[in-house]
Specification:
single chain, Rossmann fold, 2 domains, seven-stranded mixed beta sheet, 20% strand, globular, binds 5-S-methyl-1-O-phosphono-5-thio-D-ribulose
């Protein structure tokens, strides 16, 4: 995507005497656009864990680059394989819900296993990381092209009136390598001249909707309005939402979808108001082995201070402020699961399927 006239991806590699992975440090958005340079595996682990970067597809791609940094660091080690596996394990534990991370790390381990010399292994890790990043961007682009049909259909039914989409969290280009998932059909519709408006949930506690999705939509010139997380139901009851599109961090083979905490409540409100609720996600977000999202998807719990404090710009500086008694106990579940029965369809890089085992198998027969 374009920032200040320059095309950026969210993660990229700069080769040199030693490799450097560059990322957009999302902790500073929307107030400052900062690029961070990561030279070591440990720095990448920290960046993923502390959410310098975040979003399902992006943590997958970043983990793939992390594995390349690991392989490069171990190139003189006599214990390459066992040390690499230990580092892979550490990376996989940083963010447990989004399956893209484990998927990318496992893909790296398979690619590295295929070749024999250490030099070949390091090169395989480099090539695989670049491939994963390119595929992520390409898949998001395809999601946009498939998903735009849904928006165009609604636009036609409304005789060209504005289509109102509600989204939760940030499943935009910042959450992937480029384009995003939930936002890709929105960007495509906007580029095609479809009148569209997006209701952006602020998405407590970290406010990815307010700080990231709003920033992206503003930069792309897409009309949007920021709303508190609890406003969606009211808007739906008053005919102000035509469809909901969110991303997903892990989807089971029967179509249950884990996404940022609060998504389930939007799906319930959408069902009560007869509004279609879509998930947009690439195949790397599917966990083909699971069949019960609520029972089987691990839900990340994060630090209580994310709930106790809110951060924002004050007098030109980013400040955090305490919003409750400091000793108040906090529960901070990062994600919830929307059951397949509440999902109208899943927009993937291969097309739109219903949230059912049969329909998912139909478009991904090679994964079963
Ligand atoms: O905790 P985050 O910001 O990494 O959350 C993941 C997400 O970005 C959302 O759940 C998103 O909607 C999923 S699609 C990237």
């Amino acid at each position: 995507m374009i920032v200040n006239g320059t095309h950026y991806r969210t993660v990229w590699l700069e080769d040199g005497s030693s490799p450097c992975v560059k990322i957009i440090d999302q902790r500073f958005l929307p107030h400052r656009f900062v690029v961070e340079e990561l030279f070591s595996f440990n720095q990448m682990v920290e960046a993923v864990k502390e959410m310098h970067l975040r979003g399902a597809g992006l943590i997958g791609a970043a983990a793939a680059f992390g594995m390349y940094l690991a392989a490069h660091e171990l190139r003189l080690s006599s214990n390459f394989d066992s040390q690499l596996h230990a580092m892979a394990e550490r990376l996989m534990q940083t963010r447990p819900t989004a399956v893209n991370l484990a998927w990318a790390v496992n893909r790296q381990l398979s690619a590295i296993r295929e070749v024999h010399s250490i030099d070949q292994k390091v090169e395989a890790a480099r090539e695989t990381a670049l491939q994963i990043a390119d595929e992520d961007a390409q898949n998001c682009r395809s999601i946009g092209l498939h998903g735009v049909d849904i928006i165009e259909r609604i636009s036609k039914a409304k005789r060209g009136e504005v289509v109102n989409v509600l989204t939760h969290c940030n499943a935009g280009w910042l959450a992937f390598v480029d384009y995003g998932t939930a936002t890709a059909p929105i960007y495509e519709a906007h580029h095609r001249g479809v009148k569209i408006h997006v209701w952006v949930d602020e998405t407590r506690p970290r406010n990815q909707g307010a700080s990231l999705t709003a920033w992206e939509l503003l930069a792309e010139g897409v009309p949007h309005t920021l709303i508190p997380d609890n406003a969606g139901g009211h808007l739906m009851q008053h005919g102000m939402v035509d469809l909901v599109i969110t991303g997903a961090d892990r989807i089971t083979s029967n179509g249950d979808a884990a996404n940022k905490i609060g998504t389930y409540l939007k799906a319930l409100a959408a069902a009560d108001n007869g509004i279609p609720f879509y998930i947009a996600a690439p195949s790397s977000s599917f966990d083909w082995s699971l069949t019960d999202g609520v029972g089987q998807i691990p839900i990340e719990q994060r630090h209580p201070d994310e709930v106790r404090y809110v951060s924002g710009l004050a007098n030109g500086r980013v400040e955090s402020v305490l919003i409750c008694p400091s000793a108040t106990p906090v529960a901070n579940y990062g994600f919830d699961v929307t059951p397949a029965r509440l999902i109208a369809g899943i927009i993937t890089e291969r097309g739109v399927c219903t949230a059912s085992n049969e329909s998912i198998q139909f478009i991904f027969p090679d994964k079963f």
